[in-house]
Amino acid sequence: MKRYLYEIEKQFHFSSSHVLNGLPEGHPCGRLHGHNYIAVFVLGADVLNDYGFVVDYRALDSIKRYIDDTLDHRHLNDVLSFHPTAENLAHYLYTTAKYDLNIKEIIEVRVSETPKTWASYRPNH
């Protein structure tokens, strides 16, 4: 896993519901439930830009707008085309930031559903 000389992080919060279908009978996540999610976006660079930043944090406003418009106060099963686990959500947010929002310095996304649980997606490069 590549480590960069400089890494920054920014958190975004949103609240959503989901159901994880196909789990064993009685599993609590198989019922409709919600979370107050935290998504942490990690960006990295070996060389800082002319201003001394990896990226200006204000350049990440597009992530906030995307989360607010697409995920916040939504039922994830209705707005996403995949099984809405934290792991899949981390991957989805990574690819959305990198390819749809053109944040090329993104290196990892971590997603928390509860204060004790985290899932992350960080490609091996």
Largest sheet composition: 5 strands, mixed
SS strand fraction: 25-35%
Mean pLDDT score? 96
Radius of gyration based on Cα positions: 16 Å
> In which range does the helix fraction lie?
10-25%
CA(first)-CA(last) distance: 6 Å
Number of DSSP helical runs? 3
Strand order of the largest sheet: 3-1-2-4-5
Q: Strand tally, please?
A: 5
Taken from the alpha-carbon principal axes, the silhouette is: elongated
What does this structure look like?
This protein is an alpha+beta fold. The chain is 23% helix and 34% strand. It has three helices and five strands; from the N terminus they run E-E-H-E-H-H-E-E. The protein has a five-stranded mixed β-sheet.
Q: How would you summarize this macromolecular structure in one to three sentences?
A:
The chain has 125 residues and is of the alpha+beta class. It has helices at residues 61-70, 76-79, 86-100, and strands at residues 6-18, 33-45, 74-75, 106-114, 117-121.
